[in-house]
């Protein structure tokens, strides 16, 4: 995939959030609570997610995972472009030396 196409997809990304939505069984009843877990300085933190926001948070975490994949695609394309640039510079320098002899 071309870098520009991926960048256009990134521009269209909506709200996102880093973390994992987990279900926590409650001891006092049959219901489950939801928490968003995330890391800060290698320490896990958790935030309560109200039932009416669970769908939103699910969508946001999925969007974040998609965004990470798109960022990796841009990085791969950019690294390829950088490597090609370096190769072409080396090749042009080598061609210049050969014609100078």
Can you tag this structure with a few keywords?
three-stranded antiparallel beta sheet; elongated; single chain; 101 residues; alpha+beta
Write the layout of secondary structure elements.
Elements: H1 3-11, E1 20-25, E2 32-40, E3 43-49, H2 54-99
Principal-axis shape: elongated
Tell me the domain tally: 1
The helix fraction, in percent, is: 40-55%
Main beta sheet strand tally, sense and closure: 3 strands, antiparallel
| Number of discrete helical segments | 2
Structure classification: alpha+beta
* N to C succession of SSEs: HEEEH
Task: Explain how this protein is built.
With 101 residues, this protein is an alpha+beta fold. It has one domain (16-99). 54% of the residues lie in helices and 22% in strands. It is built from 2 helices and 3 strands; from the N terminus they run αβββα. The protein has helices at 3-11, 54-99, and strands at 20-25, 32-40, 43-49. Strands 1-2-3 form a 3-stranded antiparallel beta sheet, with helices on one face. A hairpin with a 6-residue loop joins strand 1 (20-25) and strand 2 (32-40). Helix 1 (3-11) packs antiparallel against helix 2. The mean pLDDT is 88.
Quick recap:
This protein has 101 residues and is α+β, with helices and mostly antiparallel strands.
């Amino acid at each position: 995939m071309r870098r520009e196409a991926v960048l256009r997809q990134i521009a269209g990304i909506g709200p996102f959030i880093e973390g994992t939505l987990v279900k926590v069984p409650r001891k006092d009843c049959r219901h489950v609570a939801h928490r968003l877990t995330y890391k800060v300085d290698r320490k896990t933190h958790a935030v309560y997610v109200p039932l009416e926001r669970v769908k939103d948070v699910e969508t946001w975490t999925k969007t974040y995972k998609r965004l990470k994949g798109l960022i990796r695609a841009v990085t791969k394309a950019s690294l390829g472009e950088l490597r090609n640039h370096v190769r072409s510079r080396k090749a042009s320098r080598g061609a210049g030396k050969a014609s100078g002899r």
